[in-house]
Amino acid sequence: MTRKTANSPATARVVPLRKGTTLQMVRLACPDTAQCTLIAESFGLPVLDSDGIRDLHEKLLVDTAASLSEGLGERAMQIHLQRIVGAFVGSAYGAGQFYSRAVTEARDATAKAACDDRDEDVDGPVGFDSAAQRKREFAADMALQSHALRMAAEGAVTAYEQVVGEAWKPFERAIENPGRSIDRKAAEMQMAALG
Fold first, then answer.
1. How far apart are the C-alpha atoms of 52 and 153, rounded to whole Å?
2. Where on the tree of life does the source sit, at the highest rank (predicted)?
């Protein structure tokens, strides 16, 4: 019978992480200031004060942190701001994804309306917008909303860096394995104890 050596390397357990939403993902999903301005002017919508939105949210979080500074320790402040900034970034990303779907639907409807052989896409009665026009206007509204939330998220990320002193990164949570029940884990532990 062979004996295992005591120096055998321990098996490392790899814990997969659920990736969080980053500010870069938001920037890819939401229109930037130039595109938002072009959309607003093309559709007759108000031009947003992008810098004002970003600066206001930055100030809001910095002021909030200052008011909580005596009651929260450094680590508690970091955790609190991590959650708040994560909510801003997650909200902006969700709006950006919704905007992207609205643009796709508007493009599809506009392409269908351009085809003369389709009866179902013909404009409605005089004085009413076509379905394609309504989808384009809806996409434009979603562009402004997602851009405003992007600016709020950028302000929140800047405030986090100002208060905490390091760049914000999304929280990455370990993925729970739903296939493994408590009974199975207990059985494995009992068998390991038996040798």
1. 13
2. Bacteria
